[in-house]
Amino acid sequence: MKLVTFSSRSLLVGDEAAEVLLEYAAVIAQFGGGDTVQLAAVDDRGAAVVATFLLDLGTPLMAETVVSDLPEPDNREAVAYMRHELAQSHGALLGEAPSADDPE
Prior knowledge:
Elements: E1 2-6, E2 9-13, H1 15-31, E3 34-42, E4 48-56, E5 61-65, H2 76-93
Antiparallel strand pairs: 1-2, 1-5, 3-4
């Protein structure tokens, strides 16, 4: 698990979700874009929450490793979305055309 700090708030999320969130935030900042991502998380009281992260050029975001017995929140859909967006960004950097499977 990782403790993601966003502004003055910290939430526990799974390792993969935290790592992909940071990577996606970095790409968004690099290109001056913006997006929102919802992640299932655990707050400082141990309650399950859904957090919406606004990612843009000025996003203060950090993740640190935490030892926890809590199960990782399920963020498969959010991780898949961010990975898809990252792939599109990398494709654009390389000058590749969007694939036929791309819904956009």
